[in-house]
Amino acid sequence: MPYTYSPIVDRAPLAWPGGKKVAVYVGLNIEHFLVGKPSTSIWPGTADLLPDPLNHGWRDYGARVGIWRTIDILDRHGVRASALVNSTAVEEYPRIVEAGVRRDWAWLAHGRTNSALHAGFASKDEERAELAEIVGTIEKATGRRPRGWMGPGLTETFATPRLLAELGLTYVLDWTHDDQPAPLTVPGVISVPYSVEINDLQLVTAGRSGPEFAQMIRDAYDQLRAEGDGRVLAIALHPFVIGQAFRARYLDEALAYLAAQPDAWLTTSDDIAAHYLAVA
């Protein structure tokens, strides 16, 4: 394992800037999908077909429409996204990159494409070259070298953290095992909390409703706030899910609630990682 066991009740107190109790960030997935490769699907019945208009069109809605609706909501509440971006997405969707750069988003490397998992490398050198190309492509497009990583489908190899450290990255989101940042066994690399449950894909995979998703976010914040300092609330979003017209209002409601909380630090995963590395 890339980390050791550390019960949260045995740790030294962790304080966020300004005395805030809960660090909140939005992990905004900006993904590119290949035609003809099964990927995240709303109906698996056609996922193996070529072409697959039903599922590919559903995913493509995010980059064409849903992202802009989501950006409007983030802007309304003063939230900077932590953009989890495929390297092919920065090439395919320069208009999205332009919008994110203008808003000073944090940019995390999210693999090459979400149509392929970050796995199956023949050697460490092959993975090293793949990671260098991904990180370099994102840096060139955004003007900012990624500091963080989340693999497509939260995938990595046992070599990934060390190879990322060679490239200057300092944190990963793949291990959803904690409510606080935590060190990995690779020096200088930490895990920042992410969530597969406070995640809008639950609206599709688990049949959650928009009001349920908004309530999950409120409930998570309230519980983390009650438990003490140094907690992280990660909200994972996909524009082809939360950006649908009938769902967007529930993100708006949830962010309005969080923005009104005096103990919430609305921030980015980059800033969470940097603060933790500075004080831990």
Distance between the termini: 21 Å
Category by helix and strand content: alpha/beta
How big a fraction of the residues is strand?
5-15%
Q: What is the H level of CATH, i.e. the homologous superfamily of one domain?
A: Glycoside hydrolase/deacetylase
CATH architecture of one domain: Alpha-Beta Barrel
Q: Please tell me what the overall shape is.
A: globular
What is the level 1 CATH name of one domain?
Alpha Beta
Query: Count the strands?
Result: 9
What is the helix fraction of residues, given as a range?
25-40%
What keyword list fits this structure?
280 residues; alpha/beta; TIM Barrel; five-stranded parallel sheet
3D architecture notes:
It is built from nine helices and nine strands. The protein has 280 residues and is of the alpha/beta class. It has a domain at 17-103 and 175-279: TIM Barrel (Alpha-Beta Barrel). The strands form two sheets. Strands 1, 2, 3, 8 and 9 form a five-stranded parallel beta sheet that branches. A four-stranded mixed beta sheet has the order 4-5-7-6, with helices on one face. Helices cover 39% and strands 12% of the residues.
